[in-house]
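Regression test case RT-17, inverse folding.

Input:
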């Protein structure tokens, strides 16, 4: 009997790895896992710098077991990341293919978000280069995984900051609007709001009613609070934290309001233990998936099991915040 798995295995000799789109904590742990597990399977590994742009510009670095020493605890990505305009063009992808072909790379592990997977799928259709994706984005907005790499660290960073804001808000009886990341998704705002005991959480997925927000702040349960924190997702359909604070000031001038935009601190910092372990699990799964012949799938974690989901599903299906968490936030905010 022909052993197809063994044939595919022998065809795979050399993998390339890149990080693309926005960086997220845990990418380095994943790079380490990919490099070391690939080497353990006697594969050669090339690091591709600055995402797809590095393929186009031949910005490559040979990886060995030691090249990924001492990075598991570091935020960011040692391979750097970029958004490559050139890779959107057929000419850019053609250049990328000829560069990786001359090096002998026959499959890729791509760590990034939905755009990164779209690019990888396009590339496989045109040039047959297989790839497996790892969800590297703090937004947690990809279908096919319960958690994306970096989400846990980002929410812990934001909660830590809000705990500090709460101290000063308490001392001055202030109402703070704290904006967290999430242009299209309220996962970060919801988790951060729940964990920091926010009085209200404004998400892109729910309709924000400023009158109802003011009524809720003034309601019996909240009236005697010495501080109020409203967590606002940057993508909230009613506007970000500055806009909301302005609206609330008009309706409720009795509040001493302040605004804090947490911004890029949410992307940085040492990855949490959860993200290091997630990066390790998904990195090893990506290599093992390539060895077994898979392509055009993302390795994710569903119910604590590694699952491979087609790119097409990951980029088209939605991964909305859990309505049960929204209910809990509402119940516990009064
Ligand atoms: P994040 O969630 O952090 O934004 P992302 O992977 O979605 O991460 P994008 O900027 O959307 O980030 O995509 C990363 C890169 O993937 C793009 O800069 C581009 O080089 C490539 N890419 C995205 N979509 C396509 C496409 N349709 N065809 C070719 N390349 C693409």
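Golden output:
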């Amino acid at each position: 009997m022909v052993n197809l798995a063994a044939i595919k295995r022998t065809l795979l000799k050399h993998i390339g790895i890149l990080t693309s789109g926005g960086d997220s904590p845990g990418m380095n742990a994943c790079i380490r896992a990919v490099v070391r597990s690939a080497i353990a399977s006697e594969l050669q590994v090339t690091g591709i710098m600055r995402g797809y742009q590095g393929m186009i510009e031949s910005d490559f670095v040979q990886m060995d077991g030691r090249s990924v020493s001492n990075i598991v605890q570091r935020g960011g990505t040692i391979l750097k990341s970029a958004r490559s305009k050139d890779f959107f063009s057929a000419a850019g992808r053609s250049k990328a293919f000829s560069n990786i072909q001359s090096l002998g790379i026959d499959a890729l592990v791509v760590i990034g978000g939905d755009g990164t997977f779209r690019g990888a799928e396009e590339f496989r259709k045109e040039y047959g280069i297989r790839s497996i994706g790892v969800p590297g984005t703090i937004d947690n907005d990809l279908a096919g995984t319960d958690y994306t790499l970096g989400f846990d660290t980002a929410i812990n960073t934001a909660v830590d900051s809000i705990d500090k804001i709460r101290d000063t808000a308490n001392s001055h009886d202030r109402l703070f609007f704290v904006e967290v990341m999430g242009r299209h998704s309220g996962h970060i705002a919801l988790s951060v709001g729940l964990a920091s005991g926010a009085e209200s959480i404004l998400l892109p997925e729910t309709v924000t009613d400023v009158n109802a927000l003011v009524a809720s702040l003034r309601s019996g349960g909240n009236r005697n609070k010495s501080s109020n924190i409203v967590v606002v997702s940057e993508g909230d359909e009613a506007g970000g934290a500055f806009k909301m604070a302005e609206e609330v000031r008009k309706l409720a001038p009795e509040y001493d309001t302040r605004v804090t935009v947490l911004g890029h601190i949410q992307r940085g910092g040492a990855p949490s233990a959860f993200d290091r372990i997630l990066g390790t699990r998904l990195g090893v799964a990506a290599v093992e998936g390539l060895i077994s012949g898979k392509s055009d799938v993302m390795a994710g974690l569903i119910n604590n099991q590694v699952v491979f989901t087609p790119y097409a599903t990951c980029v088209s299906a939605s991964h909305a915040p859990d309505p049960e968490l929204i209910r809990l936030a509402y119940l516990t905010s009064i």
